[in-house]
Amino acid sequence: MGLFHVYVQSAPHGYTLTVAFASHQVADEWWRAMSTHPEMSGLIKRVSPQLYVWNAKTAYQNKSLYDPLKDGVSQFSDKMVYLWQTNNAQNVWRGTLGIISVQDITNQTSGNSFFIRSKVEPYEYWYCPTTTGSITESTKIYTSREERTRFRVHIADEQMVPGTIMIGTDEIIVSPAFAPTLRVSIENGVARLGPAAASSESEHPKLELSHVRTGFTSGARRRVMDEENDLVIVARELVEALDGNGEGWELV
Questions:
Q1: For 195-236, what is each residue's pLDDT tens digit?
Q2: Which of 112, 117, 134, 178 has the highest CB neighbour count under 10 A?
Q3: Which domains are seen in the chain, by residue range?
């Protein structure tokens, strides 16, 4: 994926700038750092994945004009570049206002439900077959072009504020949206559903979001019975990528 662009707008100072990140994942990581920073968190608001509002109003506030190079999260300095877009309060132009392309990015909000789709084959989705309208422990996870299952994904750390934007290093729990007592786990290299109870932590360690994105691949195609709809579905087992370099998946 190419660069991911966002606007940072400051109404009090009459300027807008564009920030180009190495990827939208890096943009989310930057936002996590900003939103948890002891000083910056109160000065910036996320409106959408591509629009942020800077709220510092006076020169007496820390860094009243936003500057990515001095924002207190310097670990991103080699993963982002910025361009002034409009004039400041002194009517000094610093570049023409450009229109950034709209990039179809799903807000990776903890607690929301998502379909999980292959980046390589975008018609391939994670799928859990049901039996008599329900689903049980040890049910395998498949990938299918015919059916799909919606999963609820949330950060495992209960101290995280609801609505937090998830990043790759977060430990997460992935459950079928209609079966919150179960969660995706790995058993003998195969993805299947296990209990979500805390007592099972040692047997079913939590996944990191980065593992969901890159740690799985699809096995050989096979026929799977969908008893709820009385259908035979062509699907593939979802298996763990042994080298940790799966085919790539995204939450949509």
A1: 875 444 555 567 999 999 999 999 888 888 776 667 788 899
A2: 117
A3: 4-84 (no CATH), 113-251 (2.80.10)
